[in-house]
Design goal:
9 strands; 1 helix; about 65% strand; globular; Lipocalin; about 120 residues; mainly beta
Length: about 120
């Protein structure tokens, strides 16, 4: 009985996770000016996969992606000037069409604002 109740509760909580499936375009101000990045997100319950592309760092696969409620996290690996870096994205879904991310890169915190593409 308790197990069934816990499974029902877990399923109900997963249903409250924000829906981030689809394509997103993000803009951030970096040390050298404005930057753009696109995200193609695929959500399966709390699991998040997909890829991201920027003119700065090219294409990266989204790894270790999770979404719980309106909190979203994932990791990407980028290569810049023959150096590989792991970037940890942390974000919050705002409404249905916006995600605000922060990422630490090279000692700087970058704030991205992503908008859902229709």
């Amino acid at each position: 009985m308790k197990r069934t109740l816990l499974m029902t509760l877990a399923t109900a909580l997963a249903a409250f996770a924000a829906d981030v499936n689809g394509n997103w375009k993000a803009v951030a101000e970096g040390p050298n000016g404005s930057m753009e990045r696109t995200f193609a997100l695929k959500q399966d319950g709390e699991k998040l996969t997909g890829e991201t592309v920027s003119s700065f760092a090219g294409k990266s696969e989204i790894m270790d992606g999770r979404i719980k409620g309106d909190d979203i996290t994932f990791v990407i690996n980028v290569k810049f000037q023959d150096n590989e870096m792991k970037l940890d994205y942390k974000g919050k879904v705002i409404g249905k069409d916006e995600i605000k991310f922060t990422v630490e890169a090279g000692g700087n915190t970058i704030e991205w604002v992503a908008k859902r593409q229709q």
